[in-house]
Amino acid sequence: MCSSGLVDLLINGGYILNTKNFSTFLIVTLTLLAVSTSLFFLTTSYGSEKNESVYQKINKEDRITYLVIGDSIGRGSGAETPDKRWFSLLETKMKQHHGVHMKGTYLVQSGATALEGLYKLQNEKTLDQVQLIFIVFGENDRKYMTERDFGILYESLIRQSKAKYPAAEIITITESSLTFNNFAEKIKTISSHYKASNADMRPVFENSGKTIKELTRDQIHPNGAGYSLYADTLYQLIEKNRKSGKTIAQLETPINPESEDLLLHQNRNITSEKGFYYKNGFQTSNKAGSSVEYQFNGNLIGVKLLRGPDGGFVDVYIDGKFTAKMNTWWPFYRERIQYIKNGLAEGSHTIRFEVTGEKAASNQTDSAYFRVSSLLTGNFVN
Fold first, then answer.
1. Which of 85, 287, 323, 376 makes an SS bond possible with 79, Cβ 3.0 to 4.6 Å?
2. What is the CATH number of the domain that holds 304?
3. Model pTM?
4. CATH code of the domain containing 148
């Protein structure tokens, strides 16, 4: 009811008995009107704020919230101190030049591929506001999958990032250590298709006048000096986009039809096991010849497992055919998602893991364990 209607009701409805009562009711009515008006403008302002682009936020000197989906370089591994990570340096630059505060959320994991990034994105609670998304993959992906499979997963990641956060700009980062040009071209092509900005760090490092040893901790992960180049490049890219009035990334028709609706699911459907036992959430064995088999439906298959200092090798068979040999060693214990295969036919499949008893070269323990939590299966729409 509007305020005039409320006053009319109070007067004509017989509630106004004297001047004192009328004054009281009038004050209450005006107060309610003021509160309603404030809430209306607050809601309207908040709604429009959520739709503002990162470039509009910078122009207004307003806070920016960003999301990083990536691997160890995405999380700034290699920096001597936390303030020398690329995103920390970028935050400092934005504060110094524009008075803009940046706040980040990080879906990152050392050794991760685009598959793990996609899984984390699908299972992460939706954030209230995100104006900027950085996607940092490629260096690990080239170890486990083909260029085509990487393209499907990478495109799915961009599509689902944009669907989850429609107002967000997307900046893809081609890592300085990526030597597989076909993977770098996939990143560039997919980024361009969705009008996302791509920061290719390879030529930046090559033209820096410094050696890879001077810019990295281990020939792969940048150190503080290397991440300074990342931050400078990203800041300049954002500035260029802001000044040119760039349109933020768009959700376009997919390049790969398989990437349009790729959904990932956990699967614990064990059909047989020999020599395995259940411990702390994982089917576990270190006995050579032991095996565990699952049944699944899906075009894509990965596995959720525990990697650690005592991790060993396991042979993988899909539908009875040898598919891959997996190394589950890692310098510390961490649950990981490892890509296995894509492009499987529609219908039911089996996957069997056979422990070989072989230790990785870095395994200094007396055992070679394999610990599996579940499968990760995906279905795409052609």
1. 85
2. 2.60.120.260
3. 0.85
4. 3.40.50.1110
Residues 6+ apart with CB under 8 A from 227: 76, 78, 79, 84, 85, 86, 89
The domain boundary, picked from 259, 287, 311, lies at 259
How many folded domains does the chain comprise? 3
Residue spans of the chain under pLDDT 70: 1-50, 380-382
Quote the CA–CA distance of 373 and 350 in Å, as a whole number: 16
Beta strands in the chain (DSSP E): 64-70, 102-108, 132-136, 169-174, 197-200, 263-267, 270-274, 277-279, 282-285, 291-297, 300-307, 312-318, 321-327, 334-341, 348-359, 370-379
Do 340 and 308 belong together in one domain? yes
For 205-216, write each residue's pLDDT tens digit: 999 999 999 999
Domain that holds residue 274: 263-379
* Cα dihedral 144/343/256/152 (nearest 10): -20
Q: What is the pLDDT of residue 48?
A: 55
Query: What pLDDT shows up at residue 8?
Result: 47
